């Protein structure tokens, strides 16, 4: 064990790594409830997505733990699942099979990029302000979806949107669940989202808004409804290039940023560089590709991994422990199905995750109009157009225009000009 994970070299023990794995698992296990719930909105089979979510997470996290030896967990990313369900499928009228095809293509491209140094050029081409804006915009989009699912915000003929009936039982329960999670978060309780879900579920049982499942455990079943159902050919005939690019772009820099942050927290950076970065990125690329084959949206490194690092997790053994615990959840699909079917249980998680993602707005130079206004457009347009790709596209077009007008064309990476042209063509001439 010590030889494989270098426990002694990194100043940790098996017991510490196990506790770190349990802690990380509790902070991120909400995704096995939320992700199937979101993707089922796109017409996908809940049980199929549930198994695909768990299996893709296990594959990617095991690769991360065993081959890269990092205490980092990978699972379907929040924001990417919302983009898949509500923008690509719901907003564009594309079938979920074709959307999975786009995820697969993005995954294959991610694998190829991970094997070359071009990934660094791609990341360097995107201005830091726009990277932060994309993260914040996705956060606002996720929060918007959570508020809609809970009917805290509803449609209005007069104003498009308005405040819902807060006295409605499910909406009121959502608010209670949100308050519970926020209190747990304020007291820095590990796994506050998952614990908040469980406490909200207990209240739902008491008030009769949720019924206990007929069985607690069952053999995993239903994967055939989503596995290998992807339609790759239609991705190209329908011209979903911006969708592929959006999946790839967000996965690439979100994963890279999270990995660097967690590695820095664990003191695993060497001369401010990320050792074995190729293997770490390949783990996420494999997760995205396998996930598309099985039936789920792209994977991403989870910032919740920092919870395990905070109590001493330093090696891939932490990730292996999380993978084992995720495998156990496969047998609790009846419970997961019931929990995911109650908006009051899942909506608070969407709202809070969105809030946490907005934190990066403070890193944008708001006094610099050339940096701030394109970032502003990205953040605002993602929820207002109900499309992450549209928000990114408009921001990517406006940014170089402002730089050119100001005589700062050299401040824009040549690759970024290509991004701007491609997004302009997509928005102007194709269904977006």
What's the mean pLDDT score?
Answer: 91
By secondary-structure content and strand pairing, the structural class works out as mainly alpha
What about the largest sheet? 2 strands, antiparallel
The geometry reads as globular
H/E series: HHHHEHHHHEEHHHHHEHHHHHHH
Q: How widely separated are the two ends? A: 50 Å
Name the strands of the widest sheet in spatial order.
1-4
Low-confidence stretches: none
Q: Number of DSSP strands?
A: 4
Number of helices: 20
Rg over CA atoms: 21 Å
Q: Give the proportion of residues in helices.
A: 55-70%
Strand percent estimate: under 5%
Describe the structure.
The protein is mainly α and about 425 residues long. It is built from 20 helices and 4 strands. Strands 1-4 form a two-stranded antiparallel sheet. Strands 2-3 form a two-stranded antiparallel sheet. β2 and β3 form a beta hairpin. α8 (about 130-150) runs antiparallel to α17 and α18 packs antiparallel against α19 (about 390-405). The longest helix is centred in the middle third of the chain and has 25 residues, at about 240-265. The model has no long low-confidence stretch (mean pLDDT about 90).
Task: Give me some keywords for this one.
66% helix, 20 helices, two-stranded antiparallel ribbon
Short description, anyone?
With 432 residues, the chain is mostly helical.
């Amino acid at each position: 064990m010590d030889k494989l994970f270098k426990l002694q070299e990194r100043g940790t023990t098996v017991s510490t790594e196990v506790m770190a794995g349990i802690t990380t698992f509790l902070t991120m296990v909400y995704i096995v409830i939320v992700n199937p719930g979101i993707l089922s909105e796109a017409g996908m089979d809940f049980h199929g997505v549930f198994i695909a979510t768990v299996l893709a997470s296990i594959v990617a996290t095991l690769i991360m733990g065993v081959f890269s030896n990092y205490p980092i967990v990978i699972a379907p990313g929040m924001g990417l699942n919302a983009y898949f369900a509500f923008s690509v499928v719901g907003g564009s009228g594309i079938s979920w099979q074709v959307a999975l095809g786009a995820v697969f293509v993005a995954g294959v491209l991610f694998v190829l990029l991970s094997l070359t140094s071009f990934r660094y050029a791609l990341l360097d081409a995107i201005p830091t302000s726009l990277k932060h804006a994309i993260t914040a915009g996705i956060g606002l989009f996720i929060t918007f979806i959570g508020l809609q699912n809970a009917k805290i915000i509803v449609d209005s003929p007069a104003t498009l949107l308005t405040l819902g009936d807060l006295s409605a039982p499910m909406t009121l329960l959502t608010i209670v669940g949100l308050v519970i999670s926020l209190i747990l978060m304020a007291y820095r309780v590990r796994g506050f989202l998952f614990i908040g879900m469980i406490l909200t579920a207990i209240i739902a049982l008491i008030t009769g808004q949720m019924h206990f499942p007929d069985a607690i455990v069952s053999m995993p079943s239903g994967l055939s409804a989503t596995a290998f159902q992807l339609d790759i050919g239609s991705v190209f005939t329908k011209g979903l290039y911006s969708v592929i690019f959006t999946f790839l772009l967000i996965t690439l820099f979100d994963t890279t940023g999270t990995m660097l942050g967690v590695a820095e927290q664990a003191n695993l950076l060497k001369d401010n560089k990320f050792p074995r970065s190729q293997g770490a990125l390949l783990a996420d690329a494999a997760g995205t590709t396998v996930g598309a084959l099985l039936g789920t949206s792209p994977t991403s490194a989870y910032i919740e991994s920092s919870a395990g690092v905070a109590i001493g997790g330093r090696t891939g053994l932490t990730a292996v422990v999380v993978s084992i615990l995720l495998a156990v959840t496969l047998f609790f699909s009846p419970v997961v199905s019931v929990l995911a079917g109650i908006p009051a249980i899942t909506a608070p998680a969407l709202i809070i995750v969105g809030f946490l993602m907005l934190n990066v707005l403070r890193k944008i130079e708001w006094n610099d109009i050339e940096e701030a206004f394109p970032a502003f457009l990205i953040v605002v347009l993602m929820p207002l157009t109900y499309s992450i790709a549209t928000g990114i596209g408009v921001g990517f077009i406006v940014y170089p225009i402002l730089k050119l007008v100001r005589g700062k064309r050299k401040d824009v990476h040549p690759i970024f000009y290509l991004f701007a042209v491609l997004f302009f063509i997509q928005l102007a001439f194709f269904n977006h």
